[in-house]
Amino acid sequence: MKIIKYISEYIGVLVLLVACVALFVPASFAWIDAWYINPMLGVIMFGMGLTLSPSDFRIVLSRPKDILIGCLAQFTVMPLLAWVLAWVFALPKELALGVILVGCCPGGTASNVITYLAKGDLALSVGMTATSTLLAPILTPLLVWLMAGTMVEVDTIGMLLSIVYVVIAPIVVGLLCQRFLPRITASLVPYLPAFSSVVIAIVVGIIVAHNADRLLVGGLLVIVVVMIHNVLGLTTGFLIGRALHLPKHKSVAISIEVGMQNSGLASSLATLHFAAFPLATIPGAIFSVWHNISGALVARMYAKSSPN
User: Fold this and answer.
1) 69 close to 243: Cβ distance less than 8 angstroms
2) Residue 306 has pLDDT above 70, yes or no
3) pTM attached to this predicted model
């Protein structure tokens, strides 16, 4: 079980190593077709469904104020930051689209692990992830259309269906398995964080390997933008919580939930719906690497300053 714990805790290191290998030795992952990204994301979301319980959904009803604050921050702060950064740095259309896609996606699947390590409000984090994920089929296409509709044609219905297939359906299947196969589910749950971490790393490897040439030639600017986007999201999320006089452990959960996006979904949507703009997949790939590193760093920072 120690290796399971290490993989979960050091997901940032794992993702960084895989990304470096994929970048400098693309053949290591390029043999895996990009088509497999969607099924892999589905597997991750299926695992999320296995770990959710009725109590995770009850928190939405028992603590609506906290969930509302978190989700409003999730779907306003990151999309607006993405749009502003794309304008300030005068990003080319393809990269701007990719950054906006990242900003408009729901919270990342690793945020719950990072919140736990940061000694934040884990129940709030899980409730926010579940809620933002369920809202994503409607809000993500709508926000992308609002933010990027003047740059490119946005197929909102197609994006909605993609998110339902890749995200919502696997979660529902996971919930059904938990309901009707409880013993099997209970035996799998302890391994899911590590399994999800490995799958996330492989997804990052595939995306980076298929875009290695573009990343090596013009990746520095978008790396800077992605890092700023993530750090501002983490910071703004925490400040919103404190400005509303929420306890620190709740502010930590909102910080991490806002700053860590489902960037794999962003790259998947870019691949499926914006194939004419191949560079749009790059911000999602970079965000997938960076937010796991920054997440691990802020988790240590928050945990050290926690009174517990």
Assistant:
1) no
2) no
3) 0.87
